[in-house]
Amino acid sequence: MTERLSRDSKVATAVNPDELSIGLVHLGIGAFHRAHQAVYTELAAAATGETTWGISGVSQRSTTVRDQLAPQDGLYSVLERGLGDPTIQAIGSVRELLVAPEGVVERIADPAVSVVTLTVTEKGYRAAPGGGLDFADEGIQADLASATPRTVVGQLVAGLEARARSGAGPLTLLSCDNLVGNGAVLKRLVHEFAEAKGCATEQLAAARFPSSMVDRIVPATTDADRVDAERLLGWRDEGVVVAEPFRQWVIENDFAAARPAWEQAGAILTDDVAPWEQAKLRMLNATHSLLAYLGALRGYATIAEAVRDEELARLAQDLMTEDVVPTLDPPAGLDLTSYGESVLQRFANPALKHRTTQVAMDGSVKLPVRLLGTIRDRLAAGAEPRHAALAVAAWMRYVSTASEIDDPLAEKLRTVVGEAKAGPAGLVEALLGVEQVFAADLRENATFRALLVTELAALSA
Fold first, then answer.
1. Cβ density class 230-249: b for 16+ within 10 Å, e for less
2. Residues 263 and 390 placed together within one structural domain of the fold
């Protein structure tokens, strides 16, 4: 076997890892961060010559990333798969690897750190269904009683407390997860936890919580990807991540102190992320979910296979043009028609092999931010959001028939499905009763309920 990638490999990176000091902490150092924010951070440092933006990457549960990258001195590669031959680039911006809770609060408290970024997925925020912190969550309850926090919100508040004691400067907490108004969401959760813990500080008041919108398709890495990476790189990389060539990052320009010059790497700094965010969530992410559930139900293993199904591609297109576009007020420079076409083109990339079951994960927390807002807006306008309702019905069919459900509400969903009355109407009635997903306005809307029953009946035929 080829020798493993390491600092001694002399593989070219955009920055010299040995020269970087840590100035940024990232919570949730999975594949997406390494293919997205870490790339922007490295390119920004290369463009400016700054050496203060090395990343301390934190895994919240698994030791996998640390086990992969620590023997490689934090180095890894991004394998880009487009329509042509794949390309590869080694990345050196990750300078430390932690597994929570060890060392996390201390690193956040480091005066050299001025930015904490997050990709912990929707469920990592421990939010209640109606918004705000879920104080019934066992992890939140444990952190309120403990000095060693294990939840993301607990770690951030403890880090802010420690900074207040040490006299460190103000901190920016930058969410990069698919949540509507993710900055405002994070701010509310952090403040609510701090209040419950009784630890409000000047650091908390000075902290900034900009919103951001991220976009890049990053499928799970396969053994075949590792073989290709080894061939292209000349070294064995256990931490290689795969991505499409496209990447986008829109960031609210609201920072408490210094930050990487991400705009030098192509990020968009703006006063208002919301229009970009809503277009992405409602067009790209919602369409992704529709194709994942319908594709999985038809036996397609990947999103690319699903979008090559002419009927599914038409349904995806109709979801965007008939249901979503009428609800959007796009930002200047974003043509929604072209954007919708690019979404389907990206999904059709056969080289990515983005699994339908991977996209289908965590549906109970994805549906509210990807689809239910569109449904509410169309119902309020007197329209029938048939294609958006079809996506929700496909989720209902999927969770009622899949052998395994990867979802934070998996146990509850299995119970609800098992107790549902027979037939489409019974399943709709049962799943609409899951309050963590559907608020009362949708549960009680006769038009929405009728659409679900109709679409579920068609899917069950």
1. bebbebbbbbbbbbbeebeb
2. no
The torsion angles phi and psi of 203, rounded to 5 degrees, stand at -60, -40
In three-state secondary structure terms, 127 is: strand
Task: Give per-residue pLDDT as tens, 178-208.
Answer: 888 999 999 999 999 999 999 877 899 999 9
Contact 183, 209 (CB under 8 A): yes
The number of folded domains in the chain is: 2
Residues 461, 456: Cα–Cα separation, whole Å:
9
> Model-level pTM?
0.87
Q: In terms of C-beta distances under 8 Å and separation of at least 24 residues, what long-range contacts does 127-131 make, across chains too?
A: 127/185, 127/189, 129/435, 129/436, 129/437, 129/439, 130/439, 131/185, 131/188
Amino acid at residue number 241: V
The residue written with tokens 């030098």 in the block is 264
1 found inside a domain: no
Burial class (CB in 10 A: 0-12, 13-18, 19+), 333: exposed
- Given 236, 253, 270, which residue is the final one in a domain? 270
Instruction: Mark whether 226 and 297 lie in a shared domain.
Output: no
- Residue-number span of the structural domain to which 437 is assigned: 274-460
**221 and 292 co-located in one domain:** no
Residue 126 lies in a domain: yes
pLDDT grade for 129, boundaries at 50, 70 and 90: confident
Same domain, 262 and 283: no
For residues 124 and 239, membership in a common domain is answered with yes
Q: Residue 402: what are its φ and ψ, rounded to 5°?
A: -65, 140
Categorize the per-residue pLDDT at 1 as very low, low, confident or very high, splitting at 50, 70 and 90. low
Among residues 208, 237, 270, which one ends one of the domains?
270
Name the DSSP letter for residue 98: E
**Tens digit of each residue's pLDDT (9 = 90 or more) over 58-117:** 999 899 999 999 999 999 999 999 989 999 999 999 999 999 999 999 999 999 999 999
* Structure confidence by residue, pLDDT tens digits, 133-190: 999 999 999 999 999 999 999 999 999 999 999 899 999 999 999 888 999 999 999 9
Say if CB 308 and CB 369 are below 8 A apart. Answer: no
